[in-house]
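Form P-L/3: holo structure prediction, ligand zinc ion.
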Amino acid sequence: MRPSITLLGTGGPRPDAARGATALLIEAGEDVILIDAGRGVVRQVAALGVALDRIDPVLVTHHHYDHIGELHDVILSSWLMGRARPLRLFGPPETRRIVEALLQQVYDKDIEFRVHEAGNVPWQQVATTDIVAGLVCQGAGWRITAEIVDHGSRLDFPDAFRQRWVCLGYRFECPEGVIAFSGDTVDCPGLRRLADNADILVQCCYLARSEIASPQTQRLAGYTLACADTVGRIATEAKVGTLVLTHHRPKSAELLEQMRQDVARDFAGSLLLGHDGLRVSL
Ligand SMILES: [Zn+2]
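OUTPUT (holo model):
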């Protein structure tokens, strides 16, 4: 089977009955790689029929709660369902601090309870590595690299916060081709490097052009999340094969279609509107 990516959650932080929050699964040979762990991730993995204990590694793009809100569920449920080795987890600086807080301050009692409950496998740790740009990890015939992307870095944050706010996108490469995931970002050099000649680019696309009408949404489209006014051009200039749009603000079917048409104006390749459960193979 050719390597594939499955969108597990295609919404954002705003509750959406039709979408979970960001999570993607890459399946390559025997390997199952999870990127982000937003709302509903474990339920979606179960719906796919993928055994949770097969997930390894987990990669985190950044620390917004619509990307890591159910990281604890991935860690604990994979263990509950038989994970018998440490789970490798990679993410931007302070990912390790977050995972330690979950395991030592939030779910420490739960873990101890289950360890002493008859029939559970011994507790399996999480091996967390804080990363920046560069090679993240590799497996049988594949490798993943990270790039720093621009998700609000030009907003008026205090310097001390800005230094701590590192956001990543990921690029999966194998003999069959390249899958890139933008993470949350606007157009930036890191995104261009991720997307360069990618066979599949999974790209955040939050708003249709008609939604970028107020100062607030203009600011959002300019500094925080790429929208339908830019992503088609980015994909065309990067020579992307298939562009998959994700991370949508809740909107009507008509507005979603309008967003797709906005992007299609700037991009002539294969264009897919992401929905939860969409699988695309190389
Ligand atoms: Zn975000």
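COMMENT: The chain is about 30% helix and 25% strand.
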